[in-house]
Amino acid sequence: MKTIVEVKSLVKNFPIGTGIFTALNGVNIEFSEGEFAGLVGPSGSGKTTLLNIIGSLDIPSEGEVIVLNKSVGKLSPRQAAQLRKEELGFIFQNYNLLPVYTVFENVEFPLLLLKMNTEERKKRVMETLEWVGLTEKVNSRPSQLSGGECQRVAIARAMVKRPLLVLADEPTANLDSANSHNILQTMEKLNTELKTTFIFATHDEKVIGYLRRIIRLKDGKIVEDKAVD
Q1: 64 lies in some domain
Q2: Where residue 127 sits, what CATH number does that domain have?
Q3: Among the residues of the chain, which ranges form H helices?
Q4: In a domain, 65, yes or no
Q5: Structurally, how many domains does the chain consist of?
Q6: Domain interval for residue 194
């Protein structure tokens, strides 16, 4: 299996008042293509910080994080933005949809950044909306959708450029149980069919039940890393 993320001796410090808080302390881990894995732990364990560094939204204080053969800490802001734009998908708990845009326009937005032609964009958007079961909502705006539907739009937006890696930070936090399972089954299907790697940051037991690999963090360190049947 091809390694797509390599974390080596990662330390991340944050200044707090006159002191320093160490959010990650000597983390070593790898992720391979096609994984459906989760960073699991309570609030403050370091899971979101690790996800953000993998996503090039932050940089290491010490150590190295290599994502798709690029060392995150050595990227310029422009290069980091390019990596996110072209290769990574993000799914957040608050959806982050553009309220004045339709479902179609929200999903299309990443393709506009990639300067894809109109015909190819339309085909790609409609195909992606079909994956998440939202073709009938194509002209709706976020305010007209349920929470579950908004999160499915967010998944479609993350997947429309066919990223190699999707990072999901507490994607079911604002959803009820039925919607959570629908969302997770959708992501599981995309992982299986497209071989997209998914890495979650979560403490939701519903999400944990779907993972095929669980990495538990406590106080900025990995305390367990196990494959799940």
Answers
A1: no
A2: 3.40.50.300
A3: 47-54, 77-87, 103-113, 118-131, 147-159, 177-194, 205-208
A4: no
A5: 1
A6: 36-59+76-227
**pLDDT above 90: residue 21:** yes
Q: Read off the pLDDT of residues 167-187 as tens digits, 9 standing for 90 and up.
A: 999 888 888 888 888 889 988
Using DSSP's 3-state secondary structure scheme, residue 66 falls into strand
C-alpha neighbours within 13 Å on the C-beta side of residue 206: 16
The residue count for the chain? 229
Residue 180's contacts (CB-CB under 8 Å, 6 or more residues apart) are 172, 204, 206, 207
Tokens of 92: 């957040």
Tens digits of per-residue pLDDT, 53-64? 999 999 999 999
Q: Rounded to whole angstroms, how far apart are CA atoms 50 and 23?
A: 9
Using alpha carbons only, what angle is made at residue 6 by residues 5 and 11, rounded to the nearest 5 degrees? 120
Let me know if residue 15 belongs to a domain: no
Interatomic CA distance for residues 74 and 194, integer angstroms: 30
Please check whether residue 135 is in contact with residue 167, taking contact to mean a CB–CB distance below 8 angstroms. no
Instruction: Report the distance separating Cα 98 and Cα 27, nearest Å.
Output: 35
**Cβ–Cβ < 8 Å for 199, 5:** yes
